[in-house]
């Protein structure tokens, strides 16, 4: 049975009051989620969604899957930058990886595992849950899990939906993930966003009725709404001090670990520029790429980080 780990803080006598998962479907109570002590020494969860620069959904209107083979691969280079930064900071992280990428770069997967990181699934070819039937989704996640396990030699426990595409209309996907042997999902971003988001969802980890653990991306509650502080384009746009403040507040005032993510291509300012993409998508993808490495270094140094499974599962 999966159980939330609360790090050493719980053992030091933190309270274990029940925490209502605000907005969780059916008002579920995460009764096994112990609240953590009010300290900033919590371990937070660091993750990276491993995909090529040309596979992001912002480019889907101009770049079809059939064209993917015509681009030069940059993922080994950019994932290598992330591996170096993690190594220098002494951080282990979770790599939510596309089956498509793993098939083409098996040695990279083995290097990730050898460095002590967790391999998890980002699906096979970046299809959104919202664009698949239940059967198609089952096939996609089963295929990705098998490929990743074959190459890594590790059991794949975690899944992150492309574009955080598990929301109010696709909660059935959580049953499929549980049926196919996944133990946790990190696929919901409880914010208002034009491409994804389930603003009423729980802000913190909760167990679904089927037994899957859902670990939403981090937000902070301010001005009557959920503000994102779990990475993505926001991390390159908002001042670093906002993220520092928000994660400190999550840890100290709410006793919760942060769940942070980024992409390899965000560490690759030299990546080829895509043409014909909408202005908004262009801005989101390319803004402040040159600042990313420095910012990430600072974030890795300012907080404690670990793999998703080590923070949230009893592994
Ligand atoms: Zn993705």
Please give a structural write-up.
The structure is a single chain. The strands form three sheets. Strands 1, 2, 3, 10 and 11 form a five-stranded parallel β-sheet that branches. Strands 4-5-7-6 form a four-stranded mixed β-sheet, covered by helices on one side. A two-stranded antiparallel sheet has the order 8-9. The chain has one domain (43-312): TIM Barrel (Alpha-Beta Barrel). The model is unreliable at 1-39 (pLDDT under 50). The termini are close together. It has helices at 7-11, 75-89, 99-104, 106-114, 134-152, 172-179, 233-237, 240-252, 279-286, 289-302, 308-312; strands at 43-50, 94-97, 118-121, 158-159, 184-185, 206-207, 213-214, 219-222, 225-228, 259-262, 304-306. Helix 5 (134-152) packs parallel to helix 6 (172-179). It is built from eleven helices and eleven strands. Bound molecules: zinc ion (ZN).
Q: What value does the Rg take, in angstroms?
A: 18 Å
Output the CATH homologous superfamily. Glycoside hydrolase/deacetylase
Gross morphology is globular
Catalogue the ligands: zinc ion
Largest sheet, in brief, is: 5 strands, parallel
**What share of the residues lie within helices?**
25-40%
Q: Could you state the order of secondary-structure elements as H and E?
A: HEHEHHEHEHEEEEEHHEHHEH
Mean pLDDT: 85
Number of helical stretches of at least 4 residues: 11
Quote the distance from N terminus to C terminus: 11 Å
The tally of structural domains comes to 1
Q: The CATH topology is what?
A: TIM Barrel
């Amino acid at each position: 049975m999966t159980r939330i780990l609360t790090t050493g803080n719980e053992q030091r006598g933190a309270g274990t009051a029940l925490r209502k998962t605000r907005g969780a479907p059916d008002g579920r109570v995460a009764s096994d989620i112990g609240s953590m002590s009010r300290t900033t020494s919590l371990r937070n969860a660091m993750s990276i969604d491993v995909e090529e620069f040309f596979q992001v959904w912002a480019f889907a209107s101009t770049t079809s899957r059939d064209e993917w083979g015509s681009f030069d691969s940059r993922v080994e280079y950019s994932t290598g930058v992330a591996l170096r930064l993690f190594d220098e900071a002494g951080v282990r992280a979770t790599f939510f990886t596309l089956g498509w990428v793993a098939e083409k770069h098996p040695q990279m997967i083995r290097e990730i595992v050898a460095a002590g990181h967790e391999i998890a699934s980002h699906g096979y070819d970046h299809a959104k849950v919202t664009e698949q039937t239940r059967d198609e989704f089952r096939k996609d996640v089963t295929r990705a899990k098998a490929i990743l396990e074959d190459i890594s030699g590790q059991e794949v426990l975690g899944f992150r939906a492309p574009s955080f595409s598990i929301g109010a209309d696709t909660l059935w996907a959580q049953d499929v993930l549980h049926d196919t042997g996944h133990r946790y999902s990190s696929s919901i971003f409880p914010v208002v966003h034009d491409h994804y988001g389930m603003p009423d969802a729980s802000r913190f980890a909760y167990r679904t009725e089927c037994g899957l653990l859902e670990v939403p991306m981090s937000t902070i509650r301010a001005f009557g709404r959920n503000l994102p502080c779990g990475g993505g384009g926001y991390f390159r746009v908002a001042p670093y001090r906002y993220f520092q403040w928000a994660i400190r507040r999550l840890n100290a005032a709410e006793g919760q670990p942060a769940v942070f993510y980024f992409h390899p291509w965000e560490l690759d300012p030299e990546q080829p520029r895509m043409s014909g993409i909408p202005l908004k998508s262009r801005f989101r993808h390319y803004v402040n790429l040159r600042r990313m490495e420095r910012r990430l270094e600072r974030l890795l140094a300012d907080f404690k980080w670990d793999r998703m499974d080590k923070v949230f599962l009893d592994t």
